[in-house]
Amino acid sequence: MVNITKNKLLICSAIFMFINLYLIFIWVPTEANQGAIQRILYIHVPVSQISMLAIILVAVSSVLFLWKRNEFWDKIAIASAEIGLLYGTIMLLSGILWAKPVWGVWWTGEAKLTTALILYLIYVSYIMFRNYFPVGSQGQRIAAIIAIIGALDTPLIYFAANLWSEAHPPIVLGPASENDSSFSSSDMRLVWLFSTITFMIFFVYLLRIRYKLQDNISKYLMNT
Amino acid sequence: MKNSLGSIYNIAKKDLLIEFRNKDVILSISGFATIIIFVFSFAFDVGSSFSSSTAGGILWSSISFASITGINRSFMLESENDTLGALIMAPISRDIIYLGKVVGNFIFITISQMVILPIFAILFNFSILSIEFIACCLLANIGLSVVGTLFASLTIKVRAKEVLLPMLFLPCIIPILFSSIEATSLIFEEKSWSDLSTWFQLTIAFNLIFLIFSLFISNVIYED
């Protein structure tokens, strides 16, 4: 049975999530330009920001692992990569659902979208690599290098995708094609901020669980 | 310095000597790329006029897919006979090993292109004999060999590397792919050097960043 007192983060996360859902679907006014579909952004934007933060955490932990050779940083890196990938999946799906009615297309060659998708693919490969490489310190070191490559490549991908989209402007015809400010009122910005905090708490909770799982796996492998 | 250049030359010469005996890598790159170009030319109806950006896209997609097959093949030979272990034991620094492999792979890709490009020119009816196009190819080849050698070295011991290597390599070379496709398209439209300079600068920056990073971490790549 789950010990409630030991799951303060989970309880906190659940309470925040309920309040967040109330704020998103009932409290906040409907955006005039985009309509009800704009409500997806209260989930999409915070999730995107946290998934990018997770990837920065993977890169920083990987640098620290290569520098200090402390297993703690490797466990943080794998935990953050997996949770970041989960958030990245939600980001892509919610973004696609929002784009069709608002931009008139499911996907465009816009720089931010291209960068996010490529970064997502690099971290899918990172997770695959962690699963395919024989257990041991060499695998951890090489995984750390791959994570750093992903982070190093991101500004270049963004720059290239930006130049590319300038040369081939994406076709965007929907209601948000001219007015891009999706959080125009202070109420909307407040809900966006609250949603970011909610998803951040949930991220920390998941990260903690995944870290503990990785710690147990390491202990088990050391004993066998 | 002279010794380092000599060692790089010797490693590249060793790879070339093996290659000229069995012709594995060059055949796999040129054969695979030619088949992809053929398939695309049939898919888009041979004889019809292609837009320059479509032709550039087909050319560089084919070369990228084929390069990774060839680089993978060149490292499989090292893996099968465990000759990389022997290289690591040799009294030379690890960055020299990396640079020697990069030079070897660069020559393989460049020779393969000498087969691929005339076939492409015939099928797609574009002129490939210009200094701009040769510069574009050489810059892209440096990038493909720098990144390809880096990832092939990292994944040499991994299970299912045939899947993992393209999954790591292709998203990472997106900046090179974007700049080469766009530069090729502009060259086919007979644009001047000034129009191409941004794309060439992007490729040079990419090559330098990845080359310096790879040299910096070469001790970690070839640690065991």
Description of the molecule:
The complex is a heterodimer of chains A (224) and B (224). With 224 residues, chain A is an all-alpha fold. Chain A has helices at residues 8-27, 41-68, 71-103, 111-132, 137-167, 186-223. Chain A has one domain (44-172, 183-223). Chain A contains 6 helices and no strands. Chain B has 224 residues and is an all-alpha fold. Chain B has one domain (2-221). In chain B, 83% of the residues lie in helices and 0% in strands. Chain B has helices at residues 2-22, 24-43, 52-80, 83-89, 94-124, 131-154, 161-172, 174-188, 193-216, 218-221. The chains are: A mainly alpha (224), B mainly alpha (224). The A-B interface holds A 66, 114, 118-119, 121-122, 124-125, 128-129, 132-134, 138, 141-142, 145-146, 148-150, 152-153, 156-157, 159-161, 163-164, 167-168 and B 53, 150, 154-155, 157-161, 163-164, 167-168, 171-172, 174-175, 178-179, 182, 198-199, 202, 205-206, 209-210, 213, 217, 220-221, 223-224.
Précis, in short:
The complex is a heterodimer of chains A (224) and B (224). With 224 residues, chain A is mostly helical.
Topology:
The complex is a heterodimer of chains A (224) and B (224).
Chain A: H1 8-27, H2 41-68, H3 71-103, H4 111-132, H5 137-167, H6 186-223
Helix pairs in contact in A: 1-6, 2-3, 2-5, 2-6, 3-4, 3-6, 4-5
Chain B: H1 2-22, H2 24-43, H3 52-80, H4 83-89, H5 94-124, H6 131-154, H7 161-172, H8 174-188, H9 193-216, H10 218-221
